[in-house]
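Hey, resending since the last one bounced:
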Amino acid sequence: MKAELVDVNETRRDLSIEVPSDVVDEAIGHAAAKLGKQARIPGFRPGKVPSNVIRQRFKPQIMQDVAEHLISKAVGDALVEKGVEPIATPDIKDLVLEEGKPLTFKASFDVVPSFDPGDLSTIEATEPSRAVEDEAVNQSLERIRERNARYEAVESGAVEAGHTVVLGLERRGTDKEGKQGDLDKHEQVNIELGAPSNPPGFDAEVIGMTPGSSKSFTITYPEDYTIPELAGGKVDYTVNLKEIKKRVVPALDDELAKDLGDFASLEELRTRVREDLEHEAMHAAERQVRQDVLKQLAARVPFPVPASLVEREIDRRLEDFARRLMDQRIDPRQANIDWNAFREGQRGPATEAVGSAIVLDEVAKRDQITVTDEDLDAELQRYAEQTGHNVASIRARLQKDGELGRLAAGLRREKAIAHVLSKASIKKG
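The structure tokens again:
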């Protein structure tokens, strides 16, 4: 076998391979013989079909089997011979496979060259202040009041701004081309006046109505309305008012604190709120320092980040975002999202994330940071406690899916981050 390695750029390699014709012919013979034992062809007894018939009838399948076998072995042998390690499965191109001739093809792949990640003590970051101001505590308490608001029926009078109304509602839309939609009916719907999702002008039509009264009106949507399907169209409404409710926010006092749980007084609630905010501020400060340090690490990569790694990271981010949408019961395919624009918007952050990971791997290699069996067991135990599964089943599944090595690599990077932070200069803000 002949193999020639060419450096396309700092991270891309082309491996040109030629497998001798006698190896190719032998592989074709083996593939044909194996297929001949299984083939069922009218006029021939099983296992007695002549080789030339098998080769003629099943040539595409034979050549595919030979290509898969020889390419896999040839690439593996050539990579060992040349001492290179691709970061992903090589792309195969320019394949030529014919009986009686050498097999030739080119394998293209990305690599991450070794480099010196530099002096970690020169990394500097400023930790944001963890102080929690009284105003932040007051705002948090105010949000608690708002979340615990209740609705009381308005016994008499007319609808006013800020009320919540209970309506029987019928509506039929007409788009800007004049096409009328189906009638949409609701026996009872709650609408909070002033809500940003209300149609433009809807609140003004309902204000002043009294329980038991009905009204018909038309809402015309502006041409630049944020929902394209409604822009420039109109909707005819008929509503009858069944009930008026007003939102009542509780007083900020000891009674509210007691209603919320194990708080004897408002002061105890205030203390808990401050502790929670201080905890959040601590984690926010740690995240900010981590982000700043990772950004500086990414800048230390002395070559363009391999494109295949960036694309893989973008794919991961899109899958993660789509999963979060589904967790909110939103179909990603129906969401009004320009996925191409979203993908391109992730390219910069993905490139930076890949760059910092590359440097962390080099730091771990240089400074001999490893993941022990105890580290792996502890992570599996933590995951088991979160999911309710046992460690043995989790380990078996990860091994079966080939994910155990990826988990270990992630843990090694986390240890490398801790190592970098211990060497960096972190100033208090």
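The first strand starts at residue 2 and ends at 7.

Sorry for the duplicate.
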